[in-house]
Amino acid sequence: MKNKVTRKNYEWSSEYVRSLRLHNGLTQQQVANSIGISKRTYISFELGTRPLKKETEQKIKAYFQKKLSHETKMEVIIDYLRVRIPIHNLDLVFNDILKIIRKAFVNDDVKRYGYISRYSIDLIQVYDSLPNDNRGILIEMSGQGCRQFEVFLRQQKRSWLDFLKDCFAYQANVTRIDIAVNDYKEALPLKRMLHKMERKEYKSKFKTCSYHWGTQKNEITDKLQVAGLSIYFGSMQSEFYMCFYQKNYEIAKKKHLKVQDVPVKNRYELRFSGNKANQVTHQLTDPIKPIDICDLVFGYIKEYVTFLLPSKTRYKRNWLIYPAWSLFLGGVSQLTFVTDPKEITFERTKMWLQNQVMPTLKAFKIIDDTLETEEIEAMIAQANLGERHRKMIQSVIDPNYSITE
């Protein structure tokens, strides 16, 4: 990324301060009077036409820190990972890279992506290939798989970057990585951004941008209604695109909650694949000058998309940056990279059972009670437990069961 703007030097740029002033409905004269400087001096700061004394700059920053009403709470997480290790030594992958004992994984003959077998602990999955397949072994983790793997990383006292470095020690190739920003304060009003997109009030390095509305059933009318907006910047077939969407609607639908009760409001995902994914992860793990993951997120967002404030001139290059977008980028300056470990328990299966199976099971129970039959008991007695079920039982009833090296 050329001319990369970091979080540190953007937070109090003249562009950001101007957006704060407009956001608070203040004139340049009002700000100048409050700080005790001339309007001309303040204007020169906003325009960047001449350097100010450090003392004057500090006064401006202190003033807006008190006025700042756009507080944000955002966190960065790794939300999907696919790593190809060009070897055929499964024990090495389990012991030296994942650092989880092999017997903890359930082996089955699931064939995906052309691989011949799979080893999995819930959503942490390892695929093996034929001996003459140069791709070797594939490690794949979905969003929940990443949260589950963070439990092991915590036990091993390793970070994500440590894990990636261990992968690269064996010439690994990262073929996909999704980095997500969870926004708990709705720093970016997506409906307003969509309106500006429809009016062409933005510029982007992406050739395509699109959007999608989700649906949910109205509890009163039982009819489908529009709910949850997703905006896509770039093509899903490209090596890099972004998806900004209302995460609260997705979680509310999945967990049967009210939208307003979901803590996270929006999610901003940067999805990298192919050579781009490998490039990004090497930037993060560079032994000499690694890029901070929050700086990387900030840099890509700012480089690829900018929302604008239209003016009388028809030339977009003369339009100013839209204040809400500038405030959002300023909020990104407060990003922190976090892990959110989720223990591998039977909770996900329990939730599926409760939401999908229990209504039918209850109906059968009523039939059994009415007809004085024992169909349900008979089906339970005849059911066969697989290796996955036995390991789930062991992990729940034995809290001391350890599967890390």
Automatic annotation (TrEMBL):
<feature type="domain" description="HTH cro/C1-type">
    <location>
        <begin position="17"/>
        <end position="81"/>
    </location>
</feature>
<dbReference type="InterPro" id="IPR010982">
    <property type="entry name" value="Lambda_DNA-bd_dom_sf"/>
</dbReference>
<dbReference type="InterPro" id="IPR001387">
    <property type="entry name" value="Cro/C1-type_HTH"/>
</dbReference>
<dbReference type="Pfam" id="PF18106">
    <property type="entry name" value="Rol_Rep_N"/>
</dbReference>
<dbReference type="InterPro" id="IPR040819">
    <property type="entry name" value="Rol_Rep_N"/>
</dbReference>
<protein>
    <submittedName>
        <fullName>XRE family transcriptional regulator</fullName>
    </submittedName>
</protein>
<dbReference type="InterPro" id="IPR003491">
    <property type="entry name" value="REP-like_C"/>
</dbReference>
<dbReference type="Pfam" id="PF01381">
    <property type="entry name" value="HTH_3"/>
</dbReference>
<dbReference type="GO" id="GO:0003677">
    <property type="term" value="F:DNA binding"/>
</dbReference>
<dbReference type="Pfam" id="PF02486">
    <property type="entry name" value="Rep_trans"/>
</dbReference>
